[in-house]
Amino acid sequence: MSAAVTHGAGRLAGKVAIVTGASRGIGAAIVSAFAAAGATVVATSRAANSESLPDGVEFRELDVASENAWREVVAGAVERHGKVDVLVNNAGIIAYDTLHELTMKEWETVIAVNQTGTWLGMREVVPHMIAQGGGSIINISSIWGNAAVAGAHAYHATKGAVRNMSKSAAITYAKERVRVNSLHPGFIWTPLTEAQAPEVNDFVVSQTPLGRPGRPEEIAAGAVFLASDESSFMTGSELVIDGGYLAQ
Fold first, then answer.
1. More exposed terminus of the chain, fewer Cβ within 10 Å: N or C?
2. Alpha-helix runs per DSSP H in 133-178
3. What are the tens digits of pLDDT across the range 100-145?
4. Contact indicator for 57, 69 with CB cutoff of 8 Å
């Protein structure tokens, strides 16, 4: 018999979630939304301000490109809470240098955070999720994991990889009830985008049919859905929240 679907403030009641890149922007919004929905949340970042986290949310320092750091964070969550029901691989960075100008160091850094970090997170939680009878992994990709713009080739490479790794993992672990979906934000107004060149932001907004940036909490709402039992028949899917960008 399938699990009952719970709506409202208790949508994630009883669930334990790990969220990466939780210090600001989309990650911080997901942490707040998960906590409000009743989850026990382990918020991670390389440089999070734990004082800004909601009451009851744990903070753990995590370099997502570090195998040992992932092992410690996941093992610690299981030791303290007995399980991990949800993983949100949100940590990410971007580089806009063109292909012939990007340095090897910059390329490797983008790959390490966006792609290897996502892979390590999945690899570390999957055995625990299998042992406990299931779980939900939410990998934050991007509209630029589906479509391209000039210059951002390293970001495209990683977010396209996240999209397809998610599908492969979903198929691989479906029988173990480990669901894996990717979430694809459009242009979202965050500290990261605020720090970008205004002409970059203006261009992406101009290509967005709804004509405005998205808000972090709009992405967080999608993450709550994917983490909850409301999405129990979804795996290997792409949840696009982009103001119509990819519909063109």
1. N
2. 153-172
3. 999 999 999 999 999 999 999 999 999 999 999 999 999 999 999 9
4. no
